[in-house]
Each structure stands twice: as structure tokens, then as C-alpha cells.
Amino acid sequence: MGEHISLTVNGAVRELDVEPRRLLVQAIREDLDLTGTHVGCDTSQCGACTVHVDGKAIKSCTMLAVQADGADVKTIEGMANGDALHPLQTAFWEKHGLQCGFCTPGMIMAAADLLANDADPSDEAIRHAIEGNICRCTGYQNIVIAVRAAAAAMRDGAGAPAGA
After folding, report:
1. Contact 24/68 with Cβ under 8 angstroms?
2. For 42, which DSSP code?
3. Is residue 63 a contact partner of residue 24, using CB atoms and an 8 Å limit?
4. CB–CB of 72/53 below 8 Å?
5. Phi and psi of 90, rounded to 5°?
6. How far apart are the C-alpha atoms of 117 and 123, rounded to whole Å?
7. Which end of the chain is least crowded, N or C, by CB within 10 Å?
8. To 5 degrees, how large is the angle CA 10–CA 48–CA 85?
9. Inter-residue contact 151 to 115 (CB < 8 Å)
10. Topology of domain 87-155, per CATH?
11. Distance between CA 114 and CA 126 in Å, rounded?
12. Domain segments of the chain: what residues?
């Protein structure tokens, strides 16, 4: 038997019927077709499934879809403002903070959570914020550089799109 839920995803109200045991990551990817949120481990170890729920970064493989009923959910697809990339997306591209790209959506969502609370984080704070996200390609240094560059761009007025 399914549960009827309603959530706002990237600014749009979405209604779904989900099984009570269905994970939020499954609902996002399979029911809503938002495949930027990745499933890497199903055990909350890798962070590839990180999204924002009510403004807080969470690993969507650790939350049931029914728990998100009534929530505001933002995925990587909701970070850009139309064709304008979010400063984090631009910085990851320009500063080579990605290689294969699998971890990138989760890294960006974790970093966006950090920058929402700290406009000028130290390298240590950045590393702490992304420590729950595994990257098997970059060695993290360019990710830290990218987050630092995005923070500077946001402080200097490049700003994040509304609601980011």
C-alpha cells in the first residue's frame, strides 16, 4: 500500500504515491527523474546522494520519502538559475574540482550547505564540511580550491541564484 506525499522539489510542488520503505533518493531519481542525485553506496558512506531538505544537507539514502512529506527539497538540478550556473558549479568547473563527476553533485550540495552558514570558510572548515563525501579521483585539493573560489565569488557579488 502506498503513501501519498507532497513535497516541493526545486521550487515545484510534486505529489507522489510511495511505498513506506522507499528511500528519498529512490523517489528523487526513479519517480521524479532527477538523476543528478547519485547512488553510490546505499549505506550513507559516500555522500553522492546529498540533497538539501528544508535548507539542510542530508544524505537522501538515509531518509524515507514519507519523512520528506511537506518538505522543501533541493537537488543539484535546482542549483542553477536557468542557464546561469551556481557559483559552486562554475568554480568546480573552472578550478578542476571534478574529474569523473560522480561525486560532484553531492560535493556541491554539501559545500552549498557550508556556504549558506559561513561566507568565508577556512580550508579546514571546507574539508570538514565535505568529509562525508568520498571522491575517488581528485584527492580533494581542487575541491577545496573550488569551494574557496565560489565563496569569494559569492561574497564579491557573483552571488548564488535565489534560494540557493
Report:
1. yes
2. S
3. yes
4. yes
5. -60, -45
6. 15
7. N
8. 45
9. yes
10. DNA polymerase; domain 1 (1.10.150)
11. 7
12. 3-77, 87-155
pTM: 0.92
C-alpha cell at 67: 519523512
Distance CA 53, CA 56 (A): 5
In which residue are the cell numbers 580550508 written? 123
What is the distance between the terminal CA atoms of the chain, rounded to a whole angstrom? 35
What Rg do the C-alpha atoms of the chain give, in angstroms? 15
Closest CA to 24 of 10, 41, 37: 37
C-alpha grid cell, residue 164: 540557493
Distance CA 164, CA 127 (A): 21
Which three-class secondary structure state does DSSP give residue 112?
helix
Say how many residues make up the chain: 164
CATH superfamily of 3-77: Beta-grasp domain (3.10.20.30)
Task: Summarize pLDDT for 7-26 with one digit per residue, the tens.
Answer: 999 999 999 999 999 999 99
Helix ranges (H only) for 52-140 are 87-94, 104-117, 123-129
Convert the pLDDT of each residue in 132-157 to its tens digit. 999 988 779 999 999 999 999 999 98
CB-based contact 51:58 (threshold 8 Å): yes
